[in-house]
Design brief:
Layout (H helix, E strand, L loop, with lengths): L2 H20 L1 E4 L17 E5 L2 E4 H11 L3 E5 L7 E7 L4 E5 L2 E20 L2 E24 L2 E13 L4 E4 L2 E4 L1 H4 L7 H15 L3 H11 L3 E4 L4 E18 L2 E16 L14 E3 L7 E10 H12 L4 E3 L2 E13 L2 E10 L1 E14 L4 E9 L1 H10 L1 H4 L1 H10 L2 E2 L1 H13 L4 E4 L2 E17 L3 E17 L3
Parallel strand pairs: 1-20, 3-25, 13-15
Antiparallel strand pairs: 2-14, 3-14, 4-5, 5-7, 6-7, 7-8, 8-9, 8-10, 10-11, 12-13, 13-14, 16-25, 17-18, 18-19, 19-20, 20-21, 21-22, 23-24, 24-25
């Protein structure tokens, strides 16, 4: 073998040995993932504005459906010397005037009035019959009592369609000048009848409870991670009635909790029998709800892998590049697996507590360190990589933004706050004022950022069935 060939082989061996001393393979023990169940957090009570708008036309329709044909009958004349029948002749009209309800009632009244006395066991009576046909106008003051409108009605006027008559010797004789003072005979009976009809026609409790039941049914806010928003009613508040054009508004407020749950669809915990109506002077209107921004480990791993692209870590000719990142949960901490290429090849494992950077809307890892087995092997094979200065530079790239998750969650919620109608006649509108971070939770496949949202929600219930 020539001298040149020998020299070539010697050089090749030296280069090979030198390369082997700089390129090291690490086989660290992989920390296996374990189960992670989200902790339960306390939900802060929220207050939802719940104005109930009842159209006067609805009250009119219901009153007409309750009062039909013969609306009052008293066939006993012995108790008060009066026997009376009252018929509704046409549709009742209802309107508002000066914060009162005005009812226009076309009626026909037949009154039998007994005149006479009973002396020494001898009855001496004369029964007269009055036939009245006119338009009765009534005025009602409104109040709210036990889910219904409580009215105090008074007769305002009676305009005759024809002159009142009295039967005398089989003939109808006009007695307008006599009959007007006799209105007091049936005044209280008509007034109470109208009060009863309006009370029955304005029972809005079934509408409110049906709307609350629909609203309390959990709805999905993220299909991929099976996250659900649930509203849990606690109490209902009500203030004074308000008249608005041709409607009556009942200002109500719902005290509730709002929470986000992960997994299969949760059950509604709405219980109508436990909802009480409490009068208050002012209705609060501020929601404080806990929601969850979900970031899967897979998505986070992709973002962090991009963070490491084009970067080298180390000193001098001892450097590594991170080719890929994987995340998973173990014992309440996050395991970060880094696939390395360079002076050290293989996978190393870091572990740390996930934290939230509020200004940057980023998840980062506090007290990030090598897993014990990884650290032990690095101390034997690549001590330079185990040093804190290199770990610090790696740590700077182990973070990722959840702003897209927050934006997506906010967008989803706004879909339910922009004229959302869970059922006919019920509309949900609102706005979000502020989002504040609360805590981090870990599941088997995602990081959950618990957030507290403040804002306002109005749930309008329009009309009565």
């Amino acid at each position: 073998m020539s001298k040149n060939i020998k020299l070539y082989f010697v050089s090749l061996v030296i280069i090979t040995l030198t390369s082997c001393s700089n390129l090291q393979q690490i086989n660290a023990l992989k920390p296996e993932a374990d189960d992670a169940t989200p902790i339960v957090y306390e939900a802060t009570p929220s207050f939802i504005n719940l104005p109930i708008t009842i159209n006067i036309h609805d009250i009119e329709n219901k009153t007409n459906s309750i009062l039909t044909g013969l609306i009052y009958e008293d066939n006993t004349i012995e108790d008060d010397d009066i026997e009376m029948k009252i018929w509704k002749l046409g549709p009742i009209k209802v309107r508002t005037e000066n914060n009162k309800i005005i009812t226009i009632l076309p009626l026909k009244t037949q009154i039998k009035y007994r005149i006479g006395t009973k002396k020494l066991g001898i009855e001496m009576y004369d029964i007269r019959e009055f036939n009245l046909n006119g338009i009765l106008t009534l005025s009602s003051n409104f109040a709210l009592h036990n889910w219904k409108f409580k009215t105090k009605t008074e007769i305002k006027s009676l305009d005759w369609n024809e002159s009142p008559t009295m039967t005398v010797m089989g003939r109808n004789m006009p007695i307008t000048y006599l009959i007007n003072p006799t209105l007091k005979l049936f005044k209280s009976k008509i007034e109470s009848k109208i009060d009863e009809a309006i009370e029955k026609s304005t029972d809005f409790k079934p509408n409110v409870l049906e709307a609350l039941e629909k609203i309390s049914s959990p709805f999905q806010i993220n299909e991929s991670y099976e996250s659900w928003l649930r509203i849990n009613p606690i109490e209902l508040y009500t203030s004074d009635l308000k008249f608005k054009k041709e409607s009556v508004q009942v200002d109500m407020g719902l005290k509730c909790t709002m929470e986000t749950l992960i997994g299969r669809k949760p059950e509604s915990i709405f219980n109508a029998s436990k909802i009480a109506l409490k009068p208050v002077s002012r209705i609060p209107n501020q929601i404080t709800t806990n929601i969850v921004a979900v970031s899967s480990y897979n998505d986070a791993s992709k973002i962090m892998t991009k963070n490491f692209q084009g970067q080298e870590f180390g000193t001098g000719n001892r450097k590594i590049k991170v080719q890929n990142v994987n995340l998973w949960h173990k014992n309440g901490k996050m395991v970060i697996a880094l696939d390395l290429l360079g002076s050290v090849n293989g996978t190393i494992y870091l572990i740390g507590f996930p934290k939230y950077d509020e200004p940057k809307k980023e998840i980062y890892f506090d007290n990030l360190d090598y897993v014990l087995d990884t650290k032990s092997k690095l101390m034997r094979t690549a001590n330079w990589l185990a040093q804190g200065i290199v770990l610090k530079k790696i740590e700077e790239n182990c973070r990722y933004s959840i702003k897209p998750n927050l934006d997506e969650g906010k967008k989803t919620i706004m879909n339910y706050l922009t004229h959302y109608s869970p059922m006919p006649g019920v509309y949900v509108n609102g706005k979000i004022d502020d989002i504040q971070f609360q805590k981090i939770q870990l599941t088997n496949n995602a990081v959950l950022a618990n957030l507290q949202i403040t804002g306002k929600i109005d749930i309008n219930i329009d009309g009565l069935k």
